[in-house]
Amino acid sequence: MLRRTLPRLSAYSWKDVTYAPSTSDPAHAKQMLDIAIPRRIPPRAKLPTCVFVHGGSWQRGDKNGGLNAGIDEAFVRAGFLGVSVNYRLSPEVQHPEHVKDVAAALVLIGHSAGAHLVMQVLADPQYLRDAGLPKRADTFVKGAVGISGVYNIVRIANTAFYGSLVVNPAFGERVEQWREASIASTVTTVGPSSPLANIPLMLVNAQEDFHLQEDAQELEKWLVAAGNLMKAFVCDVADPTELAPLP
What we know:
Layout: H1 2-5, E1 11-18, E2 32-38, E3 49-53, H2 71-77, E4 81-85, H3 97-104, E5 109-111, H4 113-123, H5 126-130, E6 144-147, H6 153-159, H7 163-171, H8 175-181, H9 183-190, E7 201-206, H10 212-225, E8 231-235
């Protein structure tokens, strides 16, 4: 995958950098991120930053886990500044606390559950305002990628064989909570002024991506209606885990 195909280039890296939504509260152990930058940056270069949010059904996963370890340095080898973010997990916290962490860390790219959190931050400007950033996301975010994103929480609760195991700890047991946490509800509430309408997006799915292709198609329909020139791809792999940035 990504790290297998890129040349090895030197990078400076900082591990477990603390972030916290509030300066008055100590950071949770999961409110950490890793940063990697090239050792040699051309003068006056403005390198784009790729920030990765891991998946794991909102309940597990870590930036240092087997699927995710070193992804920040892989971004450097591809010509970017790289960041990889942890966030608090369920059942310790429920929605929207995961999204608040993502907003605090200014996350721009995510996988699976991470893709859901990224789209929420980009769709509703209130999350960034609550994190202390008054600017709209579409004024500084140059693009976002959702990989096998979970965008319809009601669907995963009702159609996936593991639905209740995934949804209840992260979003509660009421259908109203599931609807509120779904991207369709967010963009409907915020309306066409949502920053998500103006940010270049790419939605990527595997061939046998459970119900997640339907989630992506729903989001794509709203984006196109809002005038977003987004791109959607279905990759020629059967397993959605093959789309993760494996080492």
